[in-house]
Amino acid sequence: MKVKAALLAAMLVPAPALASGLVDNVNGITVDEKGDLVHFSGLLIDRDGRVEKRLGPGDKPPKELDFRLDGKGRTLVPGMIDAHGHVMQLGFLKLNLDLSDTRTLDEAKAKIAAYAAANPSRPWIIGFGWNQEQWGLGRFPTAADLAGIGNGRPIWLSRVDGHAGWANDAALTAAKITAATKAPPGGRIEMAAGKPTGVLVDKAMALMEPVIPAPLPKDRDAAFMKAQEALLAKGVTAIADMGTTIDDWQTFRRAGDRGALVIRIMGYASGTAQAAMIAGSSPTPWLYDDRLRLGGVKLYMDGALGSRGAWLKAPYADAPAETGLIQTDSTQLRNQMSRAAMDGFQLAIHAIGDRANAEVLSAIEELAETYKGDRRWRVEHAQIVDPVDLPRFGRQGIIASMQPQHESSDWKMATARLGPARLGGAYAWRAMLQNGSRLAFGSDVPVEPADPWLGLKVAVTREDARAEPPGGWLPEQRLTLAEALRAYTQGAAYAGFAEKQFGNLATGQRADFLLLDQDIELARPADIANVRVVEVWIGGKRAIAPKAETKE
Q1: Helices 272-279 and 330-342, interaxial angle, to 10°?
Q2: pLDDT tens across 114-145, in order?
Q3: What is the dihedral sign for C-alpha 105, 111, 113, 116?
Q4: Omega into 61 within 30° of 0, i.e. cis?
Q5: CB 3.0 to 4.6 Å from 512: which of 46, 237, 262, 543, for a disulfide?
Q6: What is the b/e burial string over 459-471, where b = at least 16 CB atoms within 10 angstroms of the residue's CB?
Q7: d(Cα 515, Cα 405) in Å, to the nearest integer?
Q8: Using one digit for the tens of pLDDT, what is the confidence trace for 399-431?
């Protein structure tokens, strides 16, 4: 049996069954409510799969146990929580063409051609992950670059950040996009010599959506299983799914109904209309033993930095005629936020540019006067913030939902887009904490890999995969291991109103934990990215067994 099949079998038939048990002889590491590291040597689990107690060296375990696991001295940590990802997009990436590893345009074209040749029956060539910055291209790709590939079939390829799409001539024709086509508000059709070049930015991508073949339910189910497998392999036991649609929700429910939903999903609907279709007039309860809930609404303020859609206070340093794209105007934003807040949904608002962040902060400050109580307003990404606006994050207890890997991928591009003088609030994790905000860390998968170990490494070093720049980019924003670990566990759970269900292995929480191959406290910061997950346990059940228990 191959490893992949063995992992799937372990997911669907975990062992042991619910029982009281003890995992001992471990180097247990977690964080407390204050964010300090806490150490323990054993974990007592009750029959409901919840943590009964973290045991210290002097604590004696009960004599009557249904199971006992010798951790063999391995490091045990809480399950990692990805505070911002896109579950179904990850799954479809696994089923379709992935361009994220291409380093040049020619390499990408060769991979597209090979995929098209290997899939002759597919009516469209669908892919994801291109990045002109990674290619060193100095421009967007064009439809002309795709000429001769795919035997006349339409090709549609989403940029790595999901904020731009690259089409060939056949796809443009299918969508009836011509020189006369107007981009919708919040979108841009890239033009040259008065004609579309093939790239659609932000809301202009919607022009392509009606003609792209919709996946069947069986395709969605297969994509979800691929996504879940990939997340569990990296030790991600829970994820905030940003932009959940009714089709996504039905996919998750089908998995739950057949007992195949292993990971925990905190859903944030793709707008208020989707929230109403999924949940009605209020957030759903937790379903499937705390594995699924729709509790929030995701809204967009602007686009992404890589496609120059992030809304800035001043023009782009490398494109002086552009300041970005507004996805939702001021009045619409407040109306949508009010509608969601009125029904008790949490708000999670995408804001990348400094102008977008300032506008979202103003909207939150205004609505907080009406909508009282524990709202836990979320700003997703908060990548470029004017330093004068940083204190505003702490005044309303706003959660800064950020992705460390974006910093390591973007630092050169961000410097080019903004210029050195405007980086004082760029990817400013330390400043967020100092100003009273709460951090929740994620990956934005599939924009970046759903790899919390790589994220932890970046959070404490601010260096990229080449260890550049030496000492870290804007190193004053580095975090300690404890701070970063909290953002990936207790902080991410708190950000999703899930801290009673899971997060830091506190008494009463679900027993979601990992056994690792090395001690993350003793590892060199650069080596944290190489951590291997040996076992994954969710709700007191083993979800991924050690390699010794699978056959290659």
Answers
A1: 20
A2: 999 999 999 999 999 999 989 999 999 999 99
A3: negative
A4: no
A5: 237
A6: bbbbbbeeeeeee
A7: 23
A8: 999 999 999 999 999 999 999 999 999 999 999
Q: Give the residue carrying structure tokens 């054993």.
A: 42
d(CA 338, CA 336): 5
Tell me if 503 sits within 8 A of 494, measured CB to CB. Answer: yes
Alpha helices, H only, 150-233? 169-174, 217-233
Tokens 């490091």 belong to which residue? 75
Q: What is the pLDDT of residue 545?
A: 63
Give 231's contacts (C-beta < 8 A, 6+ positions apart). Answer: 82, 85, 87, 90, 239, 263, 445, 450
**Which one-letter amino acid corresponds to residue 495?**
A
DSSP letters, 240-262, are EEEEE-HHHHHHHHHHHHTT---
- Are 283 and 344 in contact by the 8 Å Cβ rule? The answer is yes
* The residue type at 454: L
Stated pTM of the model: 0.90
Measured CA to CA, the distance from residue 29 to residue 41 in angstroms comes to 9
Residue in this structure with the two tokens 């002109």, named with its chain if needed: 132
Q: How many CB atoms lie within 10 A of CB 24?
A: 19
Cα–Cα dist 536/433, whole Å:
30
Cα distance between residue 269 and residue 37, in whole Å: 34
Q: Residue 322 is encoded by which pair of tokens?
A: 């552009």
- CA dist., res. 399 & res. 186, Å (int): 25
Strand partners of residue 21? 45, 67
The secondary element (H helix, E strand) that includes residue 516 is strand 513-516
State how far the Cα of 489 lies from the Cα of 505, in Å rounded to an integer. Answer: 9
**Percent of the chain surpassing pLDDT 70:** 95
d(C-alpha 113, C-alpha 141), whole Å: 15
167: helix, coil or strand?
strand
Determine the number of helices (DSSP H) and then strands (DSSP E) in the chain.
16, 22
Q: What are the structure tokens assigned to 145, written together?
A: 């670059």
Please state the rounded mean pLDDT for residues 309-315: 97
Nearest one of 371, 367, 323, 318 to 343, comparing CA atoms:
371
CA dist 424 and 167 (Å) reads 36
What's 361's DSSP letter? H
Strand partners, 454: none
Residue 42 pairs with which residues in a beta bridge? 24, 55
* β-strand pairing of 21-31 with 75-78: parallel
55-96, pLDDT tens digit by residue?
998 898 888 899 999 999 999 999 999 999 999 999 999 999
Give ∠ CA 21-25-28 in degrees, rounded to 5: 90
DSSP-derived secondary structure letter, 18: S
Which tokens sit at 450?
A: 């759903």
Sign of the dihedral through C-alpha 290, 377, 478, 313: positive
* Secondary structure letter of residue 504 according to DSSP: S
Tell me: pLDDT of 18 over 70. Answer: no
